[in-house]
Amino acid sequence: MVHKHNTSHVIRRYIVRGIIYLWLVIVAIIVLYPLLWVIGSSLNPINSISRASMIPEGATFDNYVRLISETNYLTWFRNTGYVAIMTMLFSVMLNITTAFVFARFKFRGRKAGLLAVMILNTFPSFMGMIALYMIALNFGMLNNLNMLVIIYVAGSIPTNIWLVRGNLLNLPKSLDEAAYIDGASKMQVFLRILLPLSLPIVTFIALTTFMSPWMDYMLPRLLINRTEVTTLAIGLFRMLDPADSANYDFTAFCAGAVLVAIPIATLYMIFQRFLIEGLASGANKGE
């Protein structure tokens, strides 16, 4: 009886494990197939979406060469890189300092401020599109990359403040008190003690705030309509517009999409450990 019970238990365990592996394989195929299809299409010498496939008919890098030499791809790349880097820098500085204040100090309006931040996080971003356009128009900041930076930084505040604050609440206040006894100022405690210990969550918000403007299409499309300040998403989308036959180029679009993905994929692979630790450390809601 015992032997039969053990056998059934082993069989059940193998069945469960097989189902899990099968599901992982299915998910991997769903994720990898579009990626491999785009990469294969970017190497296809035939500029036709109907002939696109993972295995190109005679692989060539001519599409990449044409993308760089015959379009403004480098300008799009530079504009998007500027917006993404500036958004990342200002978001990190603003969010971690504000979260430090909310996590370590008690002041009048603290709970109301946190509640307001949480409520703002519940509204979808597209609700304010018209308002953002009117603000940019009235301040003369249409076709201005700095306007994109301001909006992206402001939009990152609600979520990231709660994440960083949750991380800081996990750090014991005895660290601060010991530093204060030794004569450290509040800024020294923040810069020399809390900030190094918060590196995972800082890395997490840095990468997420970098990725948002890098991949976004809706906001730049609303505020940008000049060639010299075009971003990657707008430029690549125009290459797929059937109405714009002069710029339609499917295989060059695929090449551009591959180049767009390389920086993000590289950063995610390098900082994967920090991303997981940062997300986990910021999960605490605190007091």
Separation of the first and last Cα atoms: 54 Å
Report the biggest beta sheet as strand number plus sense, adding barrel if it closes. Answer: none
Integer count of domains: 2
Name of the CATH architecture of the largest domain? Orthogonal Bundle
Characterization of this structure:
The protein is an all-alpha fold and 287 residues long. The chain folds into 2 domains: 59 residues; 211 residues, Orthogonal Bundle (MetI-like fold), CATH 1.10.3720.10. The protein contains 13 helices and no strands. Helix 7 packs across helix 8. The protein is globular, with a radius of gyration of 25 Å.
Summarize the structure.
By secondary structure, this protein is mainly α.
Sequence-ordered SSE layout with sheet pairings:
Blueprint: H1 2-42, H2 62-70, H3 73-104, H4 110-120, H5 129-138, H6 145-169, H7 174-181, H8 186-197, H9 199-215, H10 218-223, H11 232-238, H12 250-270, H13 272-281
Helix pairs in contact: 1-12, 2-12, 3-6, 3-9, 3-11, 4-6, 6-9, 7-8, 9-12, 9-13
Relevant terms:
globular, about 290 residues, 13 helices, 2 domains, MetI-like fold, mainly alpha
